[in-house]
Amino acid sequence: MKRKLASFAVFATLVACGDDSESKPCKVDDPRTCSKGLVCEPVVGEADPACFRPVEIRGSVIDLRTEVAIAAARVNAEEASGRPIGDVAETGIGGTYAIRIPSTRQDGSGAPVGQTITLRAAARDYVPFPSGFRVALPLDTAQATEAADGAWVVAGGPAVIGLEPLPSDRVGLASISGTVGLPSDGSLGFGTMVVAERASGGETITGRVNQRGEFVLFNVPPGSYTVQAYRRGVNYVAAGVAVERADVKGVRLDVAETGTATLAGSVSIVAGNGATSVVMVLESTFDETLARGILVPGLRAPEPGLAPNIKGDFRIDGIPDGRYVILAAFENDGLVRDPDPDISGTQIQHIVVSGGVTSASPKFKVTSAVRMVGPGAGETVEAVTGQPTFRWQAYSSAKRYDVELFDNFGTRLWIKSVTTTNAAYDGAVALEPGFPYQWRLTAFGNAGNPISMTEDLRGVFEIAP
């Protein structure tokens, strides 16, 4: 009976693709080849795709403090590597949104093959998410269930996004909106990041482009800005924009004729095992204290979607003109950039790309990370009851450890030096329930030089209400 039901499910989806579906299967890139409400997607083990109800992430955006719904927020989904997937959604009056996630189906039932997805959100008068070290928790589309309308839906948990209100002196600022030219290969707009950089420095606003090439940048203070688009394999012509109190609309960023660049470099693992990755961050978004910034979609070695595998030479193609920070061992892979400033290859590397040429070929030295015990040793935000005590495993040759605590804006709240493998928080700043904090640790050797540290994306926790 199960075999017959499965066969019927395949037949039903194929029939929905059109009047002549058996001789003309649907086309993945042409939604017109499926009936209304269905999408054409590949099936594991099948030569031809078929029509199915969509896979969607359905959630809401709320005020982190009051839990009131936020309308007109923009939400987009990304793969674990940071590559955008699906379109940009805008929340309705009730703060709800739905994003279709293109998927491969397990079989004729339509159940999706799992993908790890994270979400980004931005809205007027709110701090964008993620930002600082407030990380986006992963969603697994393999957990999708059939909703009443037949769609395969992932909901709840990380699909409910809380945004932190901006300080009162930054409420009511203008926005910049417009469009970018679409690449000549016919690809859609998503995958493009738009950035407004204030000419006098000190202010950078970022946003994502939807499938139609439209973008909105929220919360832009008055000033003169350069607005530029970044997309792997494409250069754009920047636009100058003057912002006062009113929203600026109709900004147009066209594709430039200049070619993109290739970055070649190398990574040396001086201690520890495994492999790592290399990513490119836009320099104007880089926070020196937190040692992180906004990753440009697709600018990664190995290719987005692949697990870290760099043990020597690496290469990143399709880099548009701009100023970048290159980060090795940034992802959670058990390795970190060697922090010893007296050793070459341990410094954070900055490069300029102009006219399709890179200014340097970076070389990195990475080492094994100090392993956390907790809180926040995993890849989720851990809830802590009461004042936290930070714990870690002893690191070989370490004689001292410096433990630091930061808030989400990158402000260091506390530092303590210890010779043990734990430290209780005893700072003067009271930690607020419901808001994220990150602790970091640096290990020092016999000569007082730093020899390792904890990983960049770990150590995030919040105080339970």
UniProtKB/TrEMBL annotation:
GO molecular function: carbohydrate binding
Coiled coil: none
Domain of life: Bacteria
Descriptive protein name: Carboxypeptidase regulatory-like domain-containing protein
Species, as recorded: Vulgatibacter incomptus
